[in-house]
Design a protein that fits this description.
Blueprint: E1 2-5, E2 18-24, H1 29-45, E3 50-56, E4 74-79, E5 84-87, H2 93-99
Parallel strand pairs: 2-3
Antiparallel strand pairs: 1-3, 2-4, 4-5
Length: 105
């Protein structure tokens, strides 16, 4: 389980910090792709306003129950509420941004 801190906020320090959790299973192609895509989207749209936690279920399988993880990779947005989940390698940027409610349709 790794926590990747976001770079310090450059602009609005009063903005809410997004808490994201990515569940993966080892270093599979889908898991690596999902993490790379997520980092890219966060840097483009949430720079300095996010906290990303990566949980490898091969190392910590017991953590899947808390967020009811049924497939991997799965991204869970903990904050801001409501909780949202996106399953897959996160390669469709528009669907990810809409799913996380970063961008509306």
């Amino acid at each position: 389980m790794d926590t990747i801190p976001a770079p310090p906020a450059a602009a609005d320090s009063a903005a809410e910090t997004w808490e994201l959790r990515l569940y993966v299973a080892g270093q599979t192609v889908k898991s690596v792709t999902a993490l790379a895509n997520l980092r890219k989207y966060c840097e483009e749209h949430l720079k300095g306003r996010y906290k990303l936690e990566v949980i490898d279920l091969l190392l910590h399988p017991q953590l899947a129950e808390g967020d009811q993880i049924l497939a991997i990779p799965t991204l869970v947005r903990k904050v801001p509420v409501p909780i949202r989940k996106i399953i897959g390698d996160l390669s469709n940027q528009e669907k990810v941004l809409v799913g996380l409610d970063i961008r509306t349709v």
